[in-house]
Every structure is written in C-alpha cells, then in structure tokens.
C-alpha cells in the first residue's frame, strides 16, 4: 500500500462571487475511493496597519457567515493577476482611508486547509497617511485604532475570533514589539 492520495476527478458544483465549490473523487492509499469537498478561493491580502503612536487600525464589519459584526484587520480579495502587496495596500486605503509608505511581508496563512485553498498574505503597513475611504457599495465599515494590549486581551477573551486577525496581531507582536523591548 502506497502513502499517496490521488485525485481522480474534480467536478464543479456551484460557483459564487468569491468561491467555487467542487466535489473531488480521490483514491486513498488503501486503494478505496472517497468523495471530498473542495472550496476554491482566489486568495486575499491583509495589512496590520500601525499608526505613528503604535496603535493598530481595525475595521468593524458585519459578516454574514457569522450573522454578527466582527473586529478585523483590513483585508480583501485579490483582483486578477494582482500582487498581494498591491492588494494589501489597496484594501488598507479603501477600507480605512489610510495609505501606507512602507509595506513589509509579515506572514502567509492558509485559512481552512481541510477543504479550502484560501491563502492570505499579511503585511505590516507603516508610514500611514490619512486619505479617504473608498468602500464597495456593499461595504459598511467602522474604523478605529486600538492599543496592542487591548487587542491581545480581546483575542484571549474570545472577542476576536477571525483567524487572519489573530495570526496577524500575534505575529506582529512577536516579530516587532518583543524585539524592540529586548
């Protein structure tokens, strides 16, 4: 018996505006076949936007999947052939009304590896300059700066549950804040 899983067939079942849902037929290492769900996603980019005073810009928005408002870092999907750094800078300015002078790759995450290929590149955005929000017609966002310790407490208290936001805030703290303390 080999250790390889082999995809035999991928069938598109439904196509939405940001995802495609497939039914995959795979051959398992024991020779049997199984059907697995697969959600295809074009990818996204996000930014940890740090103001001159050290506070992080956060966006509060309604999320239909959870049927409630969430607090998140600015993020959004990629346009066709768009580099993730461009998407992160674009989404930052569109959602918060701040442009950045510097953008540095922080981390890459895969949001739901069991059934979805979504990849989000997360950047550190600094040198922020106030411009103006340019929201999509279906976006309604509140923007507010937060101190890092407040955000960290909100994560551990369960008030922030968004995986990209949690990963980004904790990576930022670990890579940049602790370094400056030592």
Annotate the secondary structure layout.
Elements: E1 6-15, E2 19-27, E3 33-41, E4 44-50, E5 56-63, E6 68-72, E7 75-77, H1 84-96, E8 98-110, E9 119-130, E10 142-146, H2 148-156, H3 163-181
Parallel strand pairs: 4-9
Antiparallel strand pairs: 1-2, 2-3, 4-5, 4-7, 5-6, 5-10, 8-9
Helix pairs in contact: 2-3
Mean pLDDT: 94
Q: How do the helices and strands follow one another from N- to C-terminus?
A: EEEEEEEHEEEHH
Please report the distance between the alpha carbons of the first and last residues. 52 Å
Strand content bin: 35-45%
How many β strands by DSSP? 10
Major sheet details: 7 strands, mixed
Total of DSSP H or I helical runs spanning 4+ residues? 3
Low-confidence stretches: none
Give the helix proportion (percent range). Answer: 10-25%
Shape: elongated
Tell me the radius of gyration: 19 Å
Query: Which structural class best describes the helix and strand composition?
Result: alpha+beta
Describe the structure in brief.
The protein has 182 residues and is of the alpha+beta class. Helix content is 23%, strand content 45%.
Word description of this protein:
This protein has 182 residues and is α+β, with helices and mostly antiparallel strands. Helix content is 23%, strand content 45%. It contains three helices and ten strands, in the order βββββββαβββαα. Strands 4, 5, 6, 7, 8, 9 and 10 form a seven-stranded mixed β-sheet that branches. A three-stranded antiparallel β-sheet has the order 1-2-3, with no helix packed on it. The protein is elongated.
């Amino acid at each position: 018996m080999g250790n390889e899983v082999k995809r035999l067939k991928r069938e598109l079942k439904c196509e939405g505006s940001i995802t495609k849902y497939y039914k995959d037929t795979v051959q398992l290492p024991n020779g049997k076949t199984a059907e697995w769900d697969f959600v295809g996603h074009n990818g996204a980019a996000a930014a940890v936007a740090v103001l001159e005073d050290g506070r992080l810009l956060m966006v509060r928005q309604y999320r239909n999947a959870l049927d409630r408002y969430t607090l998140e870092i600015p993020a959004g999907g990629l346009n066709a052939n768009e580099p993730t750094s461009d998407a992160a800078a674009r989404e930052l300015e569109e959602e918060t009304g701040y442009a950045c002078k510097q953008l540095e790759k922080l981390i890459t995450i895969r949001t739901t590896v069991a059934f979805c290929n979504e990849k989000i590149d997360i950047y550190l955005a600094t040198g922020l300059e106030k411009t103006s929000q340019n929201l999509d017609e279906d976006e309604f966002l509140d923007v507010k700066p937060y101190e890092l310790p407040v955000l960290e407490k909100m994560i551990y208290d369960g008030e922030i549950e968004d995986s990209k936001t949690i990963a980004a805030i904790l990576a930022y703290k670990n890579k940049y804040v602790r370094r400056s303390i030592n």
